[in-house]
Amino acid sequence: MTIDHARIYGAYAPGKIILSGEYSVIHGQPAIACAVNQFAYVEIEAEESGPSKLEMPQQSYQADFNSDQLEQLHTTITQRYQQFQSGNLAIEDVLGNKDNLIPFAVAHTQEYLKCFAPVHLAIDCEIPLGSGMGSSATISVAIIEAVASIYERTLTDEERFKLSFSCEQMIHGNPSGLDNRVAIHGGMLKMEKGKIWKLDHSFPALKAYFTGRPQVTTGECVSKVLQNFPKGHEIWLRFERTTKKLLTALIQAEQFIFRDAIRENHQLLNEIGVVPENINAQIAELESQGFAAKVCGAGAIRGPNAGIVICTGEPSPQLIKQFGWKELKLRGDSRGLRKVEVVI
């Protein structure tokens, strides 16, 4: 294997918002999601010798791993995930530390490619972390593409998905794979029973707000919801009907039906217990003024923050400021994963 030390490779991928179908997509019901213009960037270059150097400055994360250490971490985390699957370990204990997703993704890609030369990898993520916009899947997708690039290997989209989905399992337990698909393909996607369709629709007229990072992980929320509402529960059919209603509204450009579908999705998320009481009260205030809003992503099973909320219409900035929310200027991203190459 020959590595060109005179090149820096990079990859970046978009985050996402879910319009409808959170949680129910895990059971095979349809969900609709859009890639957005907030990205995770990964830059990588080959090291002549020594350990791999991994860093994410915004998380104050910096670590060195030699090949044996990366292999051992990969083995340990994989074994912990097997314990989680057996019901003997909580999902939040699989990685041990959320930052271990970074070396796991590197090691998982190296193991797959059978290429173990050391690298220097740095991550910059615009996406609010752990807040329902798919940051972990997006970071994993970008890491996998960057690592493959440094070894001059070209992955198929299915390889990118399988590798990044394995990473997503370590942090979320039982993910649907929707986040990974959106990060790879971009645009607006429908997922149902594990299959995807790219929809020919532009990003809808929505406002997006950051309510604060939840105190719980998506994995914890998913485990709790699946415990209380197992596969076959009638609520998942109600999610399916709502998502189909929203898709029809998009196709027919029916603004009021779209608003009603957003409200119905919010009510369903409320019923499964992932909308904090204060966020629910704030959404009720928006509804009283003629808007529709919903938590976008996992929400939270405890604590005051719910990550991202999307809203139809144009609520007053004064009201949003009163809520303590921060507006995100989101647009759709049609391209998905990209890679770049720089000659030093």
Structure description:
This protein is an alpha+beta fold and 344 residues long. It folds into 2 domains: 7-199 and 332-343, Ribosomal Protein S5, domain 2, CATH 3.30.230; 206-328, Alpha-Beta Plaits (2-Layer Sandwich), CATH 3.30.70.890. It has helices at residues 67-85, 101-113, 135-150, 157-172, 178-185, 218-228, 234-252, 255-271, 277-288, 317-323, and strands at residues 7-20, 31-46, 52-56, 61-65, 119-125, 188-192, 195-199, 206-210, 293-296, 308-312, 326-328, 338-343. The strands form 2 sheets. Strands 1, 2, 3, 4, 5, 6, 7 and 12 form an 8-stranded mixed sheet that branches.
Mean pLDDT across residues: 94
**SS-based class:** alpha+beta
Provide the CATH topology of the largest domain: Ribosomal Protein S5, domain 2
CATH architecture of the largest domain: 2-Layer Sandwich
